[in-house]
């Protein structure tokens, strides 16, 4: 499923582009999962389907531990 498909679904639900986006949810999930300390950071990056975890980890994890 493409990011645009998800974004269109959010718009049909009444969310504006400033409120929620598919990519923004990935950022939120990465930050919350990393901050929880319950999962290994590499597992979180693999679940987000990033080929090179080190190149993108800082982009998505905006939490204190990132």
TrEMBL record:
InterPro entries: DNA_brk_join_enz, Integrase_catalytic, Phage_Integrase. The keyword Ribonucleoprotein does not apply. GO terms for biological process: DNA integration; DNA recombination. Residues 1-62 form the Tyr recombinase domain. Pfam families: Phage_integrase (PF00589). GO terms for molecular function: DNA binding. Keywords: DNA integration. The keyword Magnesium does not apply. Belongs to the 'phage' integrase family. This is Phage integrase family protein.
């Amino acid at each position: 499923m493409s990011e645009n498909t998800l974004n269109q679904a959010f718009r049909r639900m009444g969310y504006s582009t400033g409120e929620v986006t598919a990519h923004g949810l990935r950022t939120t999930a990465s930050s919350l999962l990393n901050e929880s300390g319950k999962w290994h950071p590499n597992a979180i990056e693999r679940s987000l389907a990033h080929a090179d975890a080190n190149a993108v980890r800082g982009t998505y994890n905006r939490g204190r531990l990132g």
